Amino acid sequence: MKSSKAPPPRHLSVKAKAWWRRLVNEWVLDDAGLLILQAGLEALDRMIEAQAILKVDGSITEDRFGQKKQHPATLVERDSRSAMLAALKQLHLDLEPAGGLGRPPGK
Question: What is the pTM of this model?
Fold first, then answer.
């Protein structure tokens, strides 16, 4: 089992590395957990890249016949978001909202 203080993979973005450090410092993750976390943060980076492309290009583009169609980066954004959320869910982290949002327990 790796230490939960494992350094973030070098290829992750600054934002993903910050998430990595936060999560490995707050939770004990075994080797499988670290792989799942890495996959989720790689998906986060892909999602952010796709969002940057969409910010410039917009979500609608034209094909070679001049027909409007969904920009391919919208699919990358959607799929990456799903992969990121699935990875985080698979880690089974007990994420409770800060500040007591929602109904108090037992009520």
Answer: 0.81
